[in-house]
Amino acid sequence: MIEITFITNGGKVVSAAPNSNLLRVSLKEKGGIPFKCGGGLCGTCKCLIEEGLENTDAVKPKERRHLKPEEFEQGYRMACQTFVNGNIKVSWAGRPE
Ligand code: FES
Predict the structure, then answer these.
(1) Residue 29 belongs to what H/E stretch?
(2) Which ligand 1 atom minimizes the distance to the CA of 62?
């Protein structure tokens, strides 16, 4: 199992299977990452992988529609498009639910 830390949600830590979709884990475990469409269209699920960016999979074309190249360099991803294969810590803008 891998560990995902939801920084913006009071540092909540949950376990997940390797290769899990980040938004799906957030929904299942009440991680609190904001979302609307769940399908790569709205951009609401923009989040910052503060640690463990190397444990995320390749950036998808849908993400490139919402995020700039320099944002990817900083570690921003769209949670609904991101699969996680190791421990990460993630934060996002806005108030926790
Ligand atoms: S939830 Fe809409 S793009 Fe991820």
Answers:
(1) helix 22-29
(2) 3
